[in-house]
Amino acid sequence: ELKVEQNPLFLSMQEGKNYTIYCNYSTTSDRLYWYRQDPGKSLESLFVLLSNGAVKQEGRLMASLDTKARLSTLHITAAVHDLSATYFCAVVNAGGTSYGKLTFGQGTILTVHP
Amino acid sequence: DTEVTQTPKHLVMGMTNKKSLKCEQHMGHRAMYWYKQKAKKPPELMFVYSYEKLSINESVPSRFSPECPNSSLLNLHLHALQPEDSALYLCASSNWDVSRTDTQYFGPGTRLTVL
């Protein structure tokens, strides 16, 4: 059974600081997603990471994937208040009968304060 | 356009009511999903339809009944729900087939309250 674990689960950051969220998964998968969710809202796709060593960047967020270590990171650079949200990583279950089923991490609640 | 729409946005129902949630996408995606999300928890998969056929049912109670009338529409029929079924119900779609997996795009969700 595929398990996905994120840490930390809660992250309180000062504006301007850097931090990293970690996502570990238990079985082989070559596709990992990062989503953002604002309170009471839906999930917004941030990144899809397709292969070992993949790195994607958008603004102050950078995501990477190490399939050998089964680890993805989401790095936040010079945090700003607008980044406050819950961040989920999600891994696709391998196999043709998965129908693209996603297994989510627990989510990291990020709060950026002055 | 990567839009998935859901109606209604909010729904309050009693335990004896019958209601339906509706989801629509016009991206030509052949896989559609229903998720349930409780507060401060990740989404939990309920059902997957691929090519308009039910492909995955994650042991969801029969008081939830999905329906896929065509490739663009997905419904979730609700009957005799319990208060613990109160949650955010999310629909998603993706351009999945056997040889590839693509990003799942989520709708805005329906906030369901069962009294």
Strand residue percentage of chain A: over 45%
Structural class of chain A: mainly beta
Distance between the termini of chain B: 37 Å
Number of helices of chain B: 0
Oligomeric state of the chains? heterodimer
Rg for CA atoms of chain B? 13 Å
Gross morphology of chain A is globular
**Gyration radius of chain A, to the nearest Å?**
14 Å
Summarize the structure in words.
The complex is a heterodimer of chains A (114) and B (115). With 114 residues, chain A is mostly beta strands. Chain A has strands at 4-7, 10-14, 19-25, 32-37, 43-49, 55-58, 61-66, 71-76, 85-92, 102-104, 108-113. In chain A, the strands form 2 sheets. In chain A, strands 2, 4, 5, 9, 10 and 11 form a 6-stranded mixed sheet that branches. In chain A, a hairpin with a 4-residue loop joins β7 (61-66) and β8 (71-76). Chain A is globular and about 45 Å long. The mean pLDDT of chain A is 92.
Question: Which SSEs are present, and which pair or pack?
Answer:
The complex is a heterodimer of chains A (114) and B (115).
Chain A: E1 4-7, E2 10-14, E3 19-25, E4 32-37, E5 43-49, E6 55-58, E7 61-66, E8 71-76, E9 85-92, E10 102-104, E11 108-113
Parallel strand pairs in A: 2-11
Antiparallel strand pairs in A: 1-3, 3-8, 4-5, 4-9, 6-7, 7-8, 9-10, 9-11
Chain B: E1 4-7, E2 10-13, E3 18-25, E4 31-37, E5 44-50, E6 53-57, E7 64-70, E8 73-79, E9 87-94, E10 105-106, E11 110-114
Parallel strand pairs in B: 2-11
Antiparallel strand pairs in B: 1-3, 3-8, 4-5, 4-9, 5-6, 7-8, 9-10, 9-11
